[in-house]
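User: My notes are a mess, but here's the protein and zinc ion's SMILES. Can you give me a structure?
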Amino acid sequence: MRLSDWFFPPKCVSCGQVISDPDSSRVFCRVCLSRYYEEINSPCSFCGKTYVECCCRPAGFLPDGFVYALPYDREMRACSSLILFSKSRKNGDVIGFTAECCVRKARRLAGIPEDAVLTYVPRLPEKVRKYGIDQAEELAREIGARLSIETVRTVRHRSGSAEQKKLGAADRTGNAEKSYVPVGNLGKLIAGKTVIIVDDIVTTGSTVNACTRILRSAGAEKIICLSAAKRDRHTEPLV
Ligand SMILES: [Zn+2]
Ligand SMILES: [Zn+2]
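Assistant: No problem, the inputs look usable. Here's the predicted complex:
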């Protein structure tokens, strides 16, 4: 227990209750922690493997590799609240917990070379101003610290981009394609390398696909998407 816990005791991201035993988890209370384990050990409806093992990806997903840590679904309350929490609040314990989940699965399922470039899908600048956080960037930095890889920006929003969340699946692809542009000197940064692109939630995959096209045209040899969560709809098994 930390001294600051006496004044600001950690609260469960899922139910909001004060965590009575912060040494066992600083993110979930005891009840929600066991719900979290139940959720990640439940079977994916497509491949039947548990979410700890599942590698299902959205149809037409372009990266060469895909690892996601948690299911994102209304019924998966513990996992979903962890992801939602990070969209509006900066909390080192929560981001650290999520990064650890990503790294554990990525180490098992994706070969990550030592000279890989770590990057992220940037959030819309007005959202960063509103919430004071770019959750994918924060997550990428935490993942980078664990993998000893520096995090760099590779793509940015074209000014005037619309928010993906408000669009239907059909409009998302077109919007994503025109939303992102490469940063200057991108080729120098990534040519011939494996690029790991971090996102918080993969839904249709159109945002990551748009970024993947940019990274590929700049000469990336292999692109691995590492996402904190994947929405259960809009996906099919990887064959
Ligand atoms: Zn709880
Ligand atoms: Zn699956």
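Strands lie at 57-58, 65-72, 117-120, 155-157, 180-182, 194-202, 222-231, 235-236.
User: Great, I'll file this with my notes.
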